[in-house]
From TrEMBL:
Binding site for ATP: 206, 304
Enzyme Commission (EC) number: 2.7.2.3
Name of protein: Phosphoglycerate kinase
Pfam families attached to this UniProt entry: PGK (PF00162)
Domain of life according to the entry: Bacteria
Keyword annotations: ATP-binding, Kinase, Nucleotide-binding, Transferase
Keyword ATP-binding: yes
PANTHER family tied to this protein: PHOSPHOGLYCERATE KINASE, PHOSPHOGLYCERATE KINASE 1, CHLOROPLASTIC-RELATED
Group of enzyme by EC: transferase
Family as reported in the entry's similarity comment: Belongs to the phosphoglycerate kinase family.
GO CC terms in record: cytosol
Taxonomic lineage of the native organism: Bacteria, Candidatus Wolfeibacteriota
Catalytic reaction annotation: (2R)-3-phosphoglycerate + ATP = (2R)-3-phospho-glyceroyl phosphate + ADP
Amino acid sequence: MKFLREVKKEKIKGKTCLLRLDLNIEKNELKDSLRLERAAESTRFLLKIGCRVVILSYKGQLDIGKVQRDKFYRRSYSLRPVTRELSRKLRQSIDFVDDLNPKNWERKVNQSKRRIVVLENLRFYGEENKNSIPFAHLLASLGDFYVNDAFSMSHRQQTSLCAITRFLPSYAGIGLEKELVSLNHVLKNYKKPLVLVLGGAKVSDKAGVIENLYPKTKHILCGGGVANTFLFSQNIPVGNSLVDRKIASQNIYNRFKNKIILPSDVVIKSGAILDIGPKTTDEYSRLIKKAGTIVWGGPMGHFEDKKFAKGTFEIAKTILKSKCFAVIGGGETTTAFRKVARMDADQNADKRRYISDNLRRNQRKSASVFLSTGGGAMLEYLAGRKLPALQALDDSNMRM
Ligand code: ADP
Ligand code: MG
């Protein structure tokens, strides 16, 4: 894989970069989005070198037939609001190309006088999901080289992530590189003991990580739907708690139970477990304080409601105070962590301690935390799988 940071500046100065970002961000998250921060950083890096940037991304799972018919539907999936926010962050005007006929894109991009152009949601075209060679060829005509800075999407086989690398010199962007460095650190040079903290709603994503990291791991602390599922698989009644029945039937708990720790007390409302209890929180915190490395994916409870946020917030606080290296991933988990980190910085007056990116490099005495933009992608990478878009970057370099 070739990294953008290592490319000689003279080689790409003045050229147009096709930059694949993950701008799949809900409107209500735009004001405080890790993905948007990373997207801005990545774009700024290219502008600084003197490149023009054409940004590719998508938003949402949508019904393509309806996109063509219904302009209100189309608007609800448009990348226009996120483009506006990106423009504000970069203090740069951005041209937005929303022509529904891809054949017009090359002309529109060439006509634009701006240094940044964003193409409308690529999922408006069925070809994006098909890893299509003709569509990739068309996209490639819009730039001189390609950069993937969408780690969080790299577990998907899509045209703008995979097939496109057949047609242009292709590089891993600075955000993607950071992700890989941090995750490889966990896989290869992690400091012992390694502790996994797993929760959240998407339980199946976490099974592969347990399997792959089990031999290296000291403890697997479970909360959220992961804990509910394992409790359920031992026939412990969990009422109408969030459970993944398919995973519960797969005997994962029994295979790995030597290291799995389940909550000893929980917070229940209307027959559903919605958070880990205070005893469990203390126990998990005690083990986290002793950890050398932590991987955290998935909140401990339904933290969006203050009544069920305590477990998740306490875990975040403990990680902030501990001396470990932590990788934290997933949309909801990173949102919860950032909230706590910000409160912590506010209370301690020294706001610089909290760098927007959360890489608290200067703070030797406390944890250094890497926030991964990937939920599913991070977990798949840690499960030892080769992500299709990363494979595509490798293959592209073999060819070019
Ligand atoms: P991430 O986005 O960090 O990858 P997930 O998408 O897997 O995490 O899960 C996040 C969601 O899980 C949150 O919206 C949270 O409310 C929910 N959640 C966590 N624990 C529970 C629980 N016990 N019951 C219901 N929902 C839960
Ligand atoms: Mg989520």
